[in-house]
Amino acid sequence: MRKLSPRSVLLGLAAPVGALVFALLVCAAILALTGKSPADTIDAMATATQRPRTIANSINSATTYYLAAVAVAIGFKMKLFNIGVDGQYRMAAMLSAALAGATFMSGVPQFLRIAMTIVAAMLVGAAWAGLAALLKVTRGVSEVISTIMLNAIATYLVSYLLNPARLAQATAGSNNISTRRIDAGGQVPGLPYPGSTSKVFGLIFLAVLVGVLYWFVLSRTRFGFELKATGLSESAAVASGVSVKRMVVYSMLISGAVAGLVGMPQLLGSSYGYALDFPPGLGFIGIAVALLGRNHPVGMAVSALLWGYLDNTANSLDVAGIPREIVAIMQGVIVLSVVAAYELVRRYRVRAEQQEVGRALGRTKTLEEVSS
Amino acid sequence: MRGKTTGLVASLLAAGLVLAACGSDTATTGSGGTSSPGSTGGSTSPAIKVGLAYDIGGRGDQSFNDSAARGLDKLKADLGVEAKELEAAAGETEAQKEDRLRQLAEGGYNPIIAVGFSYAESVGKVAKDFSDVKFAIVDDFTEGTDTGANIANLTFAENEGSYLVGVAAALKSQTGKIGFVGGVNTPLIQKFEVGFTAGVKATKAEATVDVKYLTQPPDFTGFNDPAKGETAANGMFDAGVDVVYAAAGGSGNGVFKAAKAKGKLGIGVDSDQYTLPSLTDVKDVILTSMIKQVDVAVVDFVTSIKDNKFVAGQKVYDLKAGGIDYATSGGKIDDIKAKVDEAKTKIVSGEIKVPEKK
Question: Is the confidence metric ipTM above 0.85 for this complex?
């Protein structure tokens, strides 16, 4: 761990804050070019913060995004790109929704029922990710390719199963189709948020727990060390006795299990069934949030909140007559500029450290020498 | 190395996000702005403020949402209503839909129209909290979810209209092979398919219907991807199909393009697509269209409120009520019009019962 000096904290913050400011400037320019007022936009977004419902919804979105980000980050730490979080959570949410809503579950005590649902989701997510892991260690198939393909297969499998003849049921007069509704005995109660009609997902605690475990396992256990070591240098890891194949399988399984949790707050706290309109694409948001938060448990929480806030102000922008797409543009620019900013800060830091060493040795290198 | 790969992923991702934003941006120009009240014909009563929440795609989707938008434009011109149009984003949650309707209600918009079945739950919830505001939901009537004293459920008998174009397809097909291209495999589009197949079979028992859905939910791009429509239709034409019904929103353009290239026929959906300016290039292959008059439903609903004649509950727009019809523009079915009209009369009288589900 890096020592926490005021300077390193400042440098750590410089990248994300700088990127954010840059993204705001780019968006302001785009707005101005299209004839919309940047000031109105900021005003609309600020007004949205004063609405308790927007805050509650932002926290709820962030809860989901955070889980997705952690799932992705586990892979990232190993330099595994689990693009399949999307398919993993959809499979998991669909199958565990069918389980939780099944008639035989209504006799099961609430706590046990929720626990069973969550464990089922984790198992499904892990199994779906496990396929990619298996292909990688036995056949050397890149997990990027296999998980993308598994996403497509998941889409078809879910829509095959989401059929009245199988795991879903049709409601008269409705054009939607959903798994059997999870009754009150299987739901996770929300936490009331003052002044808001939306409640905060009860499973926000699950997201916090996952974040704490992620931090603990990575920085305080041997497994976490081996995981990071494999990610940093595979050959060095092998030399110190780490089985890379085993690590690939473990990290994909854990990543998949966490991916399985992604749909849970929404399913058990709001939707109570997997329907056609269950939010898709959360896995990809997870990738963006993990990048923005640099795979750091707190960093990802902050970026999940930012992402959730941006998404939930879109309606307010629309009402104010500002195209809601500006939110997506802002998110895109933030990711792009944050990566550029991290690289700039990293170079600056290396240079500063080298100069410091040089000073300590009584000699300051020239810029050319440092950068070569 | 590490920085490099992360950077690569980031740039791909960012590019994707920006492209996604640009892509949907073109479809939404014109949404979001408050329209000017227009002239209210000297009447002293304050203009009606209509709130309209679109489904994904919004104004400019050349299909379902646009049909609702047409109704709104007519209301603006005829009644001088004020309107606020908001649009759904792909991948949003129930809470965000609910928030959209609440913002409209809080902004003093009354009535509020929700376009699309995915608003079912949110309309039910918000209508309960705003009992003075009248709501309408298009395409859904679920007892206990979106029913209430201040909710009108505007539903359509798409299967009946699809039956009629099925009759036309069967009569016009020379090979006896007919195609159906559905946008997204959902119960709603299956209703089109079932009606269409019934119409074909009732007219020519030995004819076959080749069915293809462009995407599976939650991938709803099948409603707005002409390239996918073109590929699917080409496959059908190559297999001997000579008439394809495109129940696929904006993807239908691709079907017509393929039909034009191969000298075959297509059937339009939702609007009288022969008359759409955006389809001028391919209109000569459009045999007929199944018309689903969401615009009529929107106009009816708002007018009923203006006249204090609001009725809660389901209002079915079918052949009988004139909410569903088939198009004759272009004159391609003039020779068989009598037969199609015969089927129409029988459906209206109840002699023919068109199935809704497989």
Answer: yes
